[in-house]
Design brief:
The two termini are 45 Å apart. Strand 9 (395-405) and strand 10 (412-422) form a beta hairpin. This protein has 539 residues and is of the alpha+beta class. The chain is globular. Helix 3 runs antiparallel to helix 4 (87-111). The protein is built from 14 helices and 18 strands. Helices cover 39% and strands 22% of the residues.
């Protein structure tokens, strides 16, 4: 991680020697005979299994990765004149794949070790190894996916074209915000160019959806989801949004692209940490500190014409892209920025190529509906603006999740709490422009924020309803791809807050951790723990 490949190699060699010795010593006949001793024997068995796993990780995972580290540096991926050398990635594929496979096997093996009747020192060692291997397995899996996917997406086997959507969270949509600016990325043999730029104004509002919509999507989000480029991401299912955006680009410009990529201004602010300040053609200096304020607030007071606003945003994005593609960015800071943006669901990717899309499946970049499994029970909280304006800058969201078991059959009750606050100034109706407040055009008082909140449970759960500020309220119950959904419309005046509680009953007993996946609003807060009791009407 420090980029010191030689020191890593020396450490790996020492580890390999110690691990090999430990595995050998714990696998001889004398050691094995002690495993048969009542009470004491379980300790010998666990230590032998631990030693074997460490040896396997050393030989099959760390050694290949050190080989990659010695031959590849992050600086190798720095663009030069808009082009990235893909060969280091391609050459690293086999070694990274071997390491990823070895760590995945080791992760399962260490979890299978029986430590219930062992000494504390053995149990602690097993826990320590499990944590380390799990963390490493996750990290290397990401690298493995990257070296498999990146060369393909960057045109190693032929040209690729992608619709690039710039989501604007000043007007929220489930996956981030409206697509006010759109572009075409062309990738060929590692060279990336911004081939064409467009705005939402270049796309009509189609009379009917450009592709058939599922009844569930139509019921929750309406036909408009497939009729207008700014509404394709009313649904939180990004692959569906991407298909619609791709079809709209084909219909309008005659090119069927190879995928869709989405990014937002907060992501651009992260990238600016790596590039440093950028001076725009208009004279403004874009920095990591002022990018969000400039792009999502100041622009509306400086430019009254929406077309000028879209043009400014597109120019800013193009300037950042140009700076990165020229290689004027620190590669470590650039990777860190992209990783943060990806983990916050601010960068989303969909590929028309099925094999490439399979690599993205179940990652934060895929932008699918929340997927629950043995490792976590996942909920979704998604926001769509109903103000018809740019008040997202002033909407604060806090999410909390929790569970409690009250039933004899041990089926857990789950709760998701969503606190929304309108942080706009009390005189927002006067101090903010009509373009930002909406000017009351859609029936929302200037300064107020109106939002549709859709909370998603896991498939198979029973929807128990919801409360608002501790009172049971009417809501829209629905399903979306087997997920139970509760939707409600909320309007808040400046300074006003509200607390929404959503309840579900689990399908079967579970102690898996709870995770909330939500719309990446401008200012993200960490998900909190929600304390639940059995006396609540919802759970």
């Amino acid at each position: 991680m420090a980029g010191d490949a030689e020191a890593a190699g020396e450490t790996a060699e020492k580890l390999s020697a110690h691990a090999s010795s430990a595995a050998s010593l714990t696998n001889d006949p004398v050691w094995r005979s002690f495993e048969l001793v009542p009470v004491l024997g379980s300790n010998f068995t666990a230590v032998r299994e631990l030693a074997a796993i460490v040896d396997g990780v050393s030989q099959s995972a760390i050694t290949p990765l050190v080989g990659v580290a010695r031959s590849v540096e992050l600086g190798d991926f720095k663009p030069v004149d808009g082009s990235i050398d893909l060969q280091p990635l391609i050459q690293a594929r086999s070694q990274v794949a071997a390491a990823s496979t070895a760590l995945a096997v080791s992760e399962k093996s260490v979890r299978a070790i029986q430590t219930g009747n062992t000494l504390d020192v053995v149990r602690r060692a097993a826990d320590q190894l499990e944590a380390a291997v799990t963390r490493a397995a996750g990290s290397v899996d990401v690298v493995d996916r990257a070296v498999r996917l990146a060369p393909n997406m960057l045109g190693a086997a032929g040209p690729r074209n992608y619709v690039l959507m710039f989501q604007n969270p000043a007007e929220l949509r489930a996956t981030g915000g409206i697509a006010g600016a759109v572009a075409l990325l062309h990738a060929e043999n590692g060279r990336i160019t911004l081939a064409q730029q467009a705005s939402s104004g270049d796309f009509p509002r189609y009379d009917t959806p450009v592709l058939p919509l599922a009844d569930e999507t139509r019921g929750l989000y309406g036909d408009i989801t497939g009729q207008y480029i700014q509404d394709v991401n009313l649904t939180p299912d990004f692959p569906q949004s991407a298909l619609l955006a791709r079809e709209m680009w084909r219909t309008q410009f005659g090119l069927e692209t190879d995928g869709v990529i989405s990014i937002d201004p907060v992501s651009l602010s992260y990238l600016l940490r790596a590039t440093g300040p950028i001076t725009l053609a208009t004279g403004e200096v874009l920095t990591a500190e002022n990018a969000v304020q400039l792009l999502l607030s100041d622009v509306y007071s400086r430019y009254e014409d929406p077309a000028d606003q879209d043009a400014f945003f597109a120019a800013a994005a193009a300037s950042v892209f140009s700076t990165v593609s020229r290689g004027d960015a620190d590669p470590v800071a650039l990777v860190t920025a992209l990783a943060q943006a990806g983990s916050e669901h601010r960068v989303l990717v969909w590929n028309a190529n099925d094999e490439d899309q399979a690599v993205l499946t179940n990652t934060t970049l895929a932008g699918g509906l929340p997927l629950s499994n043995a490792s976590a029970t996942r909920f979704g909280v998604y926001l769509n603006d109903a103000t018809g304006a740019k008040m997202g800058m002033y909407l604060d969201m806090q999410v909390a999740v929790g569970q409690v078991t009250c039933r004899k059959d041990k089926r857990p009750n789950y709760g998701v709490s969503v606190t929304l606050s309108n942080t706009a100034p009390a005189d927002a109706a006067i101090t903010l422009s009509d373009y930002v407040t909406g000017g009351g055009v859609y029936g929302v008082a200037p300064g107020n924020v109106k939002t549709v909140v859709s909370a998603y449970g896991a498939p198979g759960m029973q929807n128990l309803g919801m409360t608002r500020d501790d009172s049971v309220v009417a809501y829209h119950p629905a399903t979306d791809s087997s997920h139970p959904v509760s939707a409600i419309e909320v309007e808040l005046a400046p300074g006003e807050s509200t607390v929404l509680h959503f309840g579900w009953l689990g399908l079967e007993p579970s102690s898996a951790p709870i995770v909330a996946q939500s719309t990446p609003v401008i200012h993200l807060n960490e998900t909190r723990e929600l304390e639940l009791g059995c006396e609540s009407a919802l759970w």
